[in-house]
Amino acid sequence: MSSPATTAPETARPPETRRPPRIPLWANPRLGLVVLLVALVVLFTALRPAFLDTTLTLVPLQSDISVYAVVGLAQLAVLSLGHMNMAVGSMASMSAFAMGLAYDRLGVPLPVGLVIGLAAGALLGALAGLIISRTGVNSFVVTLAMDFALVGLITILYTRFTDGVAFSGQPAGMTTLRNDTFADYCMGEVCGPRIPLIAPIALVAALAVGLLFRYGRLGREILMTGANEKAAELSGIPTKRRVLQAHALSGLLAGLAGFLLAANNGAFSASIGDQFLLPSFLGPVLGGTLLAGGAVSVLGTVLGATLTQVIYKGLNLLQFQLDELKLYIGLVLLVALSLDRIRHVIGERRGARA
Amino acid sequence: MIKRPFVRAAGMAALVVTLALAGCTKKSDDTTAGPATRTPGQVKIALVPGGAHPYFQPWKEAGATAKTQLGLGDVTYNETSDWDQTKQNDVLKSLAAQGYNAFGVFGVSPENINATFDDLKRQGFPVASLGSCPAGDADKADFCLSTDVEQAAYKAAQAAIQAMGGSGNLVHLTGNKVDSNTQRRIAGVQKAVDETGGKVKLLQTVTDVDKDLQSAQKAVADLLAAKGTQIQAIVNTAYNPAVASADGVKQAKLPIKVIAIDDDQTILAGIRDGSVAGTVLQNPVGQASVGSYALMKLAGGCTMTTPGVVVDSGSFVVTKADVDTYDADRQAKTEELRKAFDSQYLTCK
């Protein structure tokens, strides 16, 4: 819209002056999540001191958070485009199948099987991305169809390659990964903290995705494609390829989540990924990732996944019945999201006035 | 410029990992707490089914009875696992954090449940696998007290074959296909069909119809519409399809013999009015009450003679002839199980 005469001086100016007024610190959704998280931990601990029991509560909690943070990241990878991946669960399941097959039949060591599984996940994601970018069909429809197909395929594959529903063979180190914390490893007298061994894997994934979207050219271009595909295309970004890559990343992360869950639960089975879909959206959305695309928050996703798991664990400790548990998780999340939104809106208004 | 943070981060990470791994030794595995001896009053048992299902409802009452009869500290029943192994692991750990120290568990996923049992055993808690055994040959729980599902399915199929007069077409309705128990049930029915030497044909095995009653009803309606006239008998090895097929056959007025499972009121009424030829009963009450008893003994210092032993909690074919007296059989079986634990399975000092 603007004429060249007006755009020229603007581009010459330092970019800081063109930014909208900053949202004050207290209105930052991530900070809100942290405050809420601390409040909930204090509340649950006051009601049930067992909440701070290391071996029975805190260590399993960290394992669960690790899995669901990565599940959230898998969805975040395509939310960056404004797309959805309805097949996160079945992609995780297919990856877990590939890993299980590699360990059981080929007897490969742990890292090799992991790479095979991640490659399987990335390929499935890339396939979804390819269909979406080539046909222009909505990502929701494509991945939903893919999910249906994969759920069937998984059942067929498991009945053909296993005697039931899970691989009995497991690589060396799998049990260690599940049971041990860093406290089991000592350097002289100094032992590590009580953090399960799978937590750093999730942490590395989160850091890598964060760095990719913040500093990586690929990540920035994916975000630009998500913000405005036409504009990105006109700026010379190969948008079709970026769509494919974002979906491949989503598949890869789904595969990683499948691996982490298999490590946690102790088997590569067909049920992996069954419960991934809803949490995959919860983490990113709670953390401030836009469903419309163009903006992501990795830290927020991790915090969102943490919040959900803390709520779940807390209510569990308070021995809520199944129906109540679901009701209260829904309510707590609704309140958390509304508070977050209110704070955000007030913050923006104040910011605009400043 | 753009790639540098990656390189820097990766370098830092590699450095940290190398430093951490250098000179790091694993502490000897001394976390396994020796099982503490507890008096019945100190034993707090948690009965944890895989999720909400009518089959487990008798556990609640049997648990409460065991609490008063045995003078236990507490017996709780928690069905919040919601058919998700991850959630069930969470539920179990939460219960342990609250002081429950003996567990009777119906594992959501028979393939993964050994890992869960291992976790609980490492904390020194006695664990019983109730209602379902882990898949494969190993059982990491102290014992498994469950219906031998293959045997029960075999009995049910035999009853169906008998009801249909020894020849014709049979249909098998069952639960989740990707569940090793379902695979065992399919094997049990197949075995009974094979024994007829070709006189009975297994027309179809319909899986995944035990999610809820609606989906079971739909599946039965579709089945009867498509093949109703060719079928002589339906054998059910899951609860929801049993209720649905008893109803469906009655409404369609087809001469199909239905063998159901469990003793829901609808099914018992069906047996009385003749629309259901028979039903195969399991023994959930026995699982919960004998399971609680054995857990108490284990907490009190007894050990299993054979750790991980599999005990059949019994299955009974009930027809119109014994529909009013079957509970006596079941109670007798339960009492027999308790005695077997005392004399055979448990070693007490």
From TrEMBL, chain A:
Signal peptide positions on this chain: none
Superkingdom in the source lineage: Bacteria
GO cellular component terms, semicolon-separated: plasma membrane
Main location: membrane
Compartmental location: Cell membrane
Recorded coiled-coil stretches: none
Biased composition (Low complexity): 1-11
Gene Ontology MF terms in the entry: transmembrane transporter activity
Pfam families for the chain: BPD_transp_2
Key words, A-Z: Cell membrane, Membrane, Transmembrane, Transmembrane helix
Membrane topology: Multi-pass membrane protein
Region annotated Disordered, chain positions: 1-21
Regions crossing the membrane: 27-47, 67-88, 108-132, 138-158, 197-215, 244-264, 276-305
Protein name: ABC transporter permease
Taxonomy of the source species: Bacteria, Bacillati, Actinomycetota, Actinomycetes, Streptosporangiales
UniProtKB/TrEMBL annotation, chain B:
Keyword Nucleotidyltransferase (UniProt): no
Ranges where the Periplasmic binding protein domain occurs: 48-301
GO cellular component term, pick one: outer membrane-bounded periplasmic space
A Pfam family reported for this protein in Swiss-Prot or TrEMBL: Peripla_BP_4
Keyword Endoplasmic reticulum among record annotations: no
Family: Belongs to the bacterial solute-binding protein 2 family.
UniProt signal peptide: 1-22
GO MF annotations, alphabetized: carbohydrate binding
Protein name per Swiss-Prot or TrEMBL: Sugar ABC transporter substrate-binding protein
